[in-house]
Amino acid sequence: MTADHVFAALASPARRRLLRLLLDEGAQPAGRLAVRFDMSRPSVSEHLKVLKDAGLVAESRRGRERHYRLEAGPLMEIREWLTPYERFWRERLSALSTLLDEMDDLGPDDEHGPDGLNGRNGEQPHV
Amino acid sequence: MTADHVFAALASPARRRLLRLLLDEGAQPAGRLAVRFDMSRPSVSEHLKVLKDAGLVAESRRGRERHYRLEAGPLMEIREWLTPYERFWRERLSALSTLLDEMDDLGPDDEHGPDGLNGRNGEQPHV
DNA sequence: ACTATATGTAGGATTTTTCCTACGCATCAA
DNA sequence: TTGATGCGTAGGAAAAATCCTACATATAGT
Prior knowledge:
Chains A, B: Residues 102-127 are annotated as: Disordered. Two copies of one chain form a homodimer. Chain A is mostly helical.
């Protein structure tokens, strides 16, 4: 439920694969998910529990089956957590292109066109 | 260097805090980062190593200090990994608002205005 | 050359994670 | 009711992560 739980849950490749399966194929009973893994069914069941505790999946009981569905909310919180780093990333990119421009001014050694995707006009942070 | 390494690196609160410090305050020598933690300096040093192996920080030696700087590229790959889930998330949202509209049609019990941020007009996936 | 500083590495204790098999519980079908 | 099916939990072994205290290395200053 906390960000800690979400990050910890995403640390396992098996759990990330579970999320992807639920995304691509929709909600499914636990057993149908488990057969895809090179791992015992109870182990998959525990992974599902970790995902559930992190709020990444929800379960609904239907007869003797338990259907798990993706709950993408926490992933959007991860996305928000990443946002400030995106700003940093863009600034690095524009700093790089500024540097390339300066190199062009000093002495163009070849004629590779400027293929940057941004306008080469940002502030330049810690380089 | 792989996505596995990046997700695993982000699983530790201490390492996420290191990244945040480097983002907010810029590159710093290892020792200056370490004093902020309720943990021995060598332990912080190992966390920095994990981050470096994941490509999340880079080090540059300056005299007897080692400055660590944020390397945001891998975080942008995480962002891309999240993208398909964002689509799923939006579809859920619009499905919810569609549902709310139907409830309005059947019998409006109060007059809360529709405060959804989207137009309530998407496809409705697995609800 | 000698000492102090900045930092990584070694080795180990402790905790956590991961995975298994065995079992219990609920549901469906005869 | 009886037997099969779907699934979680218990208990434990093995592996990995976490954190510590020495210790080694390299640079700076005197």
